[in-house]
Amino acid sequence: MSVRHALLALLSEGPKYGLQLREEFEARTGEVWPLNVGQVYTTLQRLERDGLVESDDAGEDGPQKGFRITADGAQELAGWLRTPPDLSSPPRDELVIKVLVAMRLPGVDVHEVVQVHRKYLVELMQEWTRLKEDEADYDLPLALAVDAELFRLDSVIRWLDSADGRLRRAAGDPPGRAASPVPMPMPRLRRKAGVRR
């Protein structure tokens, strides 16, 4: 997530203060990604240093210091919006690495490792679905953010299912699932207003 470009986008609507930018960022992203006010000001300082934003008073920091986007900032934002992210190399996904490592570890049942994580991800999807049912009907940014997370989790679960099947076929085992995976702690999905369960 590019906080830098999100702040530029908000400033493209007109001059704003740091605290205002934090509140608008959280509102526009469905309050799924809380933003520390210190991160806002650090990012604004870097944007100002790079000539992408200007402030009311370069000598005084604080909640009443206003910022506005420059022509270079608007050009940077336009370029970022139209440039696809670099997905040419797979990321170092911790879950993929766990499965690859578990394949070779003596005394470790790789299928159990797969099922432990699968169970956790299914429960996490259920949590996101409940959050969406409770609030997303009247909160479009939240609905879009939750949909993105549900699609991402679904793809990871599909990969785990595919990996489990491939591992079983390679070992000559019949397909199946571990009977009772070890439970993992469930995270609490947080929004600015508090925890939703």
Indicate the topology.
Elements: H1 3-11, E1 16-17, H2 18-28, H3 37-49, E2 53-55, E3 66-69, H4 71-82, H5 94-104, H6 110-135, H7 140-171, E4 190-191, E5 194-195
Antiparallel strand pairs: 1-3, 2-3, 4-5
Helix pairs in contact: 2-3, 5-6, 6-7
Between the first and last Cα atoms, what is the distance in angstroms?
A: 25 Å
How does the overall form come out from the CA principal axes?
Answer: elongated
Q: Could you name the ranges where pLDDT drops below 50 across 5 or more consecutive residues? A: 177-182, 192-197
Q: From the alpha-carbon coordinates, what is the Rg to the nearest angstrom?
A: 22 Å
The overall number of domains is 2
Structural class, by secondary structure, is mainly alpha
- Identify the strand order in the major beta sheet: 1-3-2
Amount of beta strand: 5-15%
Let me know the average pLDDT. 83
Major pleated sheet: 3 strands, antiparallel
Strand element count: 5
Number of helices: 7
Q: Give the helix level as a range of percent.
A: 55-70%
Oligomer: single chain
Listing every helix as H and every strand as E from the N terminus to the C terminus, the arrangement reads HEHHEEHHHHEE
